[in-house]
Task: structure prediction
Amino acid sequence: MFSLEGKTAFITGGSSGIGRAVAETFIANGARVVIADIVATGDAASEIGATGVHCDVSSEASVAEALGAAVAVLGKNLDIVVLNAGVGDVGPDLSETEQALIEKVTRINHWSVIYGLKHAPAHMNDGGSIISTASMAAFISVPGSAVYSAGKRAVTSLTEMAALELGNRGIRVKCVCPGYTATALGSGEEGQRICEAFTALGRVAEVDDMSGVYLFLASQASRYMTGQSLKVDGGWDCGPTATLLELVTGSNQAPG
Ligand SMILES: NC(=O)c1ccc[n+]([C@@H]2O[C@H](COP(=O)([O-])OP(=O)(O)OC[C@H]3O[C@@H](n4cnc5c(N)ncnc54)[C@H](O)[C@@H]3O)[C@@H](O)[C@H]2O)c1
Result:
């Protein structure tokens, strides 16, 4: 059920972090993978047995071109598309956020998913799977990250809309919402400390805590799922942890 034997996959932002781990996991489970990234993709791709194509996800033309190039490289249409590339720039309060940051983050994290969902279906086989990377920031607002959070919430909305539009081809559309994850984009020691206090599991995520979820969503194991936003957050969304309560009230239980 979890096998990707004979399947083809296209992964944006596959040169590093979560995207690279997903590419490795797909390859280990039988898929042939093209990674599409703005940084030099050749070496990163060949190290893991994938092929790299250049893509700037903030450009509609570049996304369309990269999808076409992937089909040419793989010699057949795509079964799996992962719209994962993103940046983590957060600003000060909205009132002080520069236009340049608004445009950069919105184009790369939000519009890129519109472009991917718009152009990928023409290059896909019926019965395929599209998985975008949103974020727990779509649901839990952390001060100073308004543009990032809004863009990620938009990804969850686009996921539902595309699921409705592509259901008649059997193409399933989902998004993964990671909590803080140890990558170049992740928030380093601060992210770790937040996870220790705010998550039920009490630790930051590693990329391989994410990649198995993408495998599940890409494979037949999730064949009746579409439109979902999956929170992969170590239990951040459950509510305040005992550690947090103790910090605030001195007791690790709800006040009686
Ligand atoms: N790391 C976290 O804590 C975390 C949490 C929630 C969501 N996410 C999301 O996960 C996704 C992957 O991030 P990551 O943590 O693996 O970070 P990362 O920096 O390791 O990977 C991001 C990748 O996207 C590529 N990229 C950036 N801009 C691009 C562009 N314009 N065109 C094409 N490729 C581009 C980068 O080159 C890089 O390979 C992002 O969408 C991010 O918002 C990350």
